[in-house]
Amino acid sequence: MLLGDLGAEIIKVEKPGTGDETRNWLPPKTSTGLSCYFVAVNRNKQSITIDLKKGKDLLYQLAQKSDVLVENFVPGTMEKLGLGYTDLQKVNPRLIYCSVSGYGSTGPYATRGGYDVIAASIGGLLHITGTRDGEPCKVGVAMTDLATGLYLHGGIMAALIQRQSTNRGQKIESNLLSTQVSCLVNLASNYLNGGVEAKRWGTAHESIVPYEAFRTKDDRWMTIGAGSNELFHEMCEVVGLPHLKTTEKYSTNALRVEYREELIGILANQIKTKTCTEWTEEFKLSKFPYGPVNNIQEVFSDPQVKASELVQEIGSYKVVGPAVKYSLAQNTVRLPPPELGQHTREVLRNVLHMSGSEIEELYQKSIVS
Questions:
Q1: Could you report the per-residue pLDDT of 59-96, keeping only the tens digit for each?
Q2: What are residue 151's phi and psi, to 5 degrees?
Q3: Is residue 102 within 8 Å of 115, Cβ to Cβ?
Q4: Position 103 pLDDT exceeds 90
Q5: Which pLDDT does position 214 carry in this prediction?
Q6: What proportion of the chain, given as a percentage, has pLDDT over 90?
Q7: Nearest-CA neighbor of 105 among 139, 149, 71?
Q8: Residue 205 C-alpha from the chain's centroid
């Protein structure tokens, strides 16, 4: 989808009759009956339906004319279909062939299907997410899936640049578990280099105090961070606790971490004295970072979100557009999410240059639908 925003022509090959599973991830659904989930991640794509077993030749023809192929079957599936990297590079040596899986093509888990929450469990994300005394918790959106896609996006762009000098494509492998483990970043380093096991901190930070969400008078939450002594001193002044600046046991971040419970208790009681809106007004000229914990309605009502013009309308749908802006390159929402098989005839005719009678024969043989 991100490559599509940048102008790439994306041809989404789907299973005849049912298509992408996320089409049926209901509720909720749009006014057109399409899954809201599918709408979120399928803009700027054309949909064609091909029976992979019967229509292997069509996949070969598409591969010949494509720069990049992305597949997310269990490792070995495409090879069994005769559509693996070694097969397709013979017809297009410049093809960049991307395989996305749960665990990669080697190792004891290679043949297992990949799901975000499972990879997030095995990869430690659920262990470090949730309240300090609570159960492991799933992140609200599929961050492991999303991060894997972002890694692959960068990999594809790098392979395209390398191809300019080598004139050859290559195979790229990306998997959910490796992505998740790499996203442990400082917590991985804490364990590997310091022997420190990670634990859940809720909204707090293991190494910075204060750096968490506080309940306000109106039972909302305000997140406040003070990553330096300067910011901590400013925060103390603004929240009405100036004496904390000169309290010896809060004089450094290391000491604030040591006396975390006491300090957080003092701050929590103070933040409860005003509403979230009142604190937002108090903080608006401050340098220390802060922000209300918004629900989704509040997110899209936020003046900064509105100013960023992230929400875009395309056809019957509203989508969150690209997060990156370029001074020269285009990065735009151009096409609405496709209906199943909406572009099959168009792609066969305009990309593969097939005649009307050839296309009809494919339909009659149920190779496409």
A1: 999 999 999 999 999 999 999 999 999 999 999 999 99
A2: -60, -45
A3: yes
A4: yes
A5: 98
A6: 98
A7: 71
A8: 22
Q: Is the pLDDT of residue 369 over 90?
A: no
- Encoded tokens for 103: 């665990």
State how far the Cα of 337 lies from the Cα of 360, in Å rounded to an integer: 25
Q: How many whole angstroms separate alpha carbon 1 and alpha carbon 20?
A: 14
CA atoms within 13 A on the CB side of 134: 12
What is the phi/psi pair of residue 114, to 5°?
Answer: -105, 130
Q: Average pLDDT for residues 23-27, to the nearest whole number? A: 92
Please name the residues in contact with 122: beta carbons below 8 A apart, sequence gap of 6 or more.
Answer: 177, 180
Q: Is 173 exposed, middle or buried (0-12, 13-18, 19+ CB in 10 A)?
A: middle
Instruction: Using alpha carbons, select from 316, 369, 309 the residue that is nearest to residue 344.
Output: 369
Q: Compute the mean pLDDT over every residue in the chain, rounded to the nearest whole number.
A: 96
Is there a cis peptide before residue 337, judged by omega within 30 degrees of 0? no
Q: Is the peptide bond before 108 cis (omega within 30 degrees of 0)?
A: no
Q: How far is CA 279 from CA 31, 50, 221, 235, 360, in A?
A: 39, 57, 10, 12, 66
Contact 207, 196 (CB under 8 A): no
Nearest alpha carbon to residue 146 among 323, 315, 283:
323
Query: Which among 69, 70, 71 is positioned nearest to 95, based on CA atoms?
Result: 69
The residue type at 82:
G
State mean pLDDT over 189-211.
Answer: 96
End-to-end Cα, the chain, rounded Å: 24
Look at residue 350 and tell me whether its pLDDT is greater than 90: yes
Report, as an integer, the average pLDDT of 312-339. Answer: 93
Residue carrying structure tokens 């009405």: 240
How many whole angstroms separate alpha carbon 219 and alpha carbon 206?
25
Element (H or E) spanning 313, and its range?
A: strand 311-314
Please tell me the predicted confidence (pLDDT) of residue 342: 96
Print burial letters for 324-345: b (CB count within 10 Å at least 16), e (below 16).
Answer: eeeeeeeeebebbbbebbbbbb
Known catalytic residues are: 145
Q: What is the pLDDT of residues 263-311, one digit of tens each?
A: 999 999 999 999 999 999 999 999 999 999 999 999 999 999 999 999 9
In whole angstroms, what separates CA 257 from the centre of its chain?
32
